[in-house]
Design brief:
Elements (H helix, E strand, L loop, with lengths): L7 H4 L4 H10 L1 H21 L7 H23 L1
């Protein structure tokens, strides 16, 4: 599979070290990061037609990814 865009370290390069640290120190953050990773990969598979889904399902996955990203950002910037 090709490079998956929207990985957390690429979305928040200024927080790359903090992301790594928080994944090991904060179980809630680690769980959010893992869920983001799973949803992001699903969106990428849908967008690249590796695992196509209905348009509405893809929109919902993107909304979920955005929501997780917002929550992750709030934790990183706190």
């Amino acid at each position: 599979m090709s490079h998956t865009p929207h990985e957390l370290h690429e979305e928040f390069p200024e927080y790359a070290e903090k992301i790594t640290a928080m994944k090991t120190q904060d179980t809630h953050f680690a769980r959010l990061a893992e869920e983001y990773h799973e949803v992001n990969r699903a969106v990428h598979r849908a967008e690249s037609n590796v695992a196509p889904v209905e348009a509405l399902a893809e929109v919902e996955m993107r909304k979920k990814r955005a929501s997780l990203k917002d929550e992750i950002y709030r934790m990183l910037s706190a």
